[in-house]
Amino acid sequence: MSIVSRLTTGEATLRAGPVSLKLDLRATLIFVVLCLIVFAGVVVNVGYGAYPVPPSAVVRTVLGLGDDDGQAFIINTVRLPRALVAVAVGAALAVSGAILQGLTRNGLAAPDIVGVNAGASLAAVSLIVAVPSASAAYLQPAALGGAFIVAALLYVLAWRGDSSPVRLVLVGIGLGATAGAGTTFMITFGEVQQVSLALIWLTGSIYGRGWDELYSFLPWLLLFLSLALFLARHLNALNLGDDVAHVIGVPVRRTRALLLLTSVVLAGTAVATAGTIGFVALMAPHIARQMVGSSHGSLIPVAAATGAAIVVGADLVGRAVLPQVEIPAGIVTAMLGAPFFIYLLYRSRNT
């Protein structure tokens, strides 16, 4: 493998035979720094709690070098999978939002806009309220199924020979409103105990998530995150307009369908795993765009690391502010995201 650097343009090209990979050195450095921040957040998160563990002990225990069995149980069985779920969920939501914003050429777009989160929530709440005897193991498949149903409806209703970004958003808003009304209906007429469980899930929380949730989520994340990175250059072409993308050889319809599928699956599986953690898909791509620009080859990985940092930080803040009453991560991200959304609306008022 050879490395060719061009410091004047801030790029490096890795070559291994006929295969080459171009790297933006600045974006790569920012990504590495963000990964270190996420790592530090995970270590602090795992160490924090009623039984505090110093960061050095956390690292030793995870590496299998600790000699305290009780401490190892708390870290490896209780706290570590929860922190890793926060990382995975944050990355998935951020990449989903970055794809959707690029696909619609709308900086205000997020999976919430096209109804994916609302569809997943409706399916999960319906299972909790209408089938109280159902095992919790069915919650993730139900939520993912709801997201897929909304995606299928979105594909059918927004695809009339072609799919315009404006039509995609408008149809998504309608589907989201319909699914939201269905969720309200289920909550209104459900039993008190089931409604309480549904409301806790709807707030978005990492509480109680373990290795089973992480292992069921990781294949989806790795597969569709890889697909997102592969399609990044096509997404850049679509941002130039369908005509330009078609001229340079991008199969517009198939690429848009794959990008939409990728965004839907990442958001749907994240919601299925941790409930509705709002605004991460909106905030993370904007923050990443300010750091590395709008090229999706750099934006997608940086957005993923940014989203991971946001959810890990939100989970830690929710546990630390009121130790006796844990605040769900979804509430913390909503407190941050709502002012951010208002700011974006204000900034785009004249556009």
TrEMBL record:
Chief subcellular location: membrane
Superkingdom of the organism of origin: Bacteria
Membrane-crossing segments per the record: 29-51, 83-101, 113-131, 137-156, 168-187, 193-210, 217-237, 257-287, 299-321, 327-346
Keyword Transport recorded: yes
Record's keyword terms, sorted: Cell membrane, Membrane, Transmembrane, Transmembrane helix, Transport
Record-linked CDD domains: TM_ABC_iron-siderophores_like (cd06550)
Localisation per UniProt entry: Cell membrane
Entry annotated with the keyword Membrane: yes
Membrane topology: Multi-pass membrane protein
InterPro entries, alphabetized: ABC_BtuC-like, ABC_transptr_permease_BtuC
Family: Belongs to the binding-protein-dependent transport system permease family. FecCD subfamily.
Name this polypeptide is given: Iron complex transport system permease protein
Species this protein is from: Pseudonocardia parietis
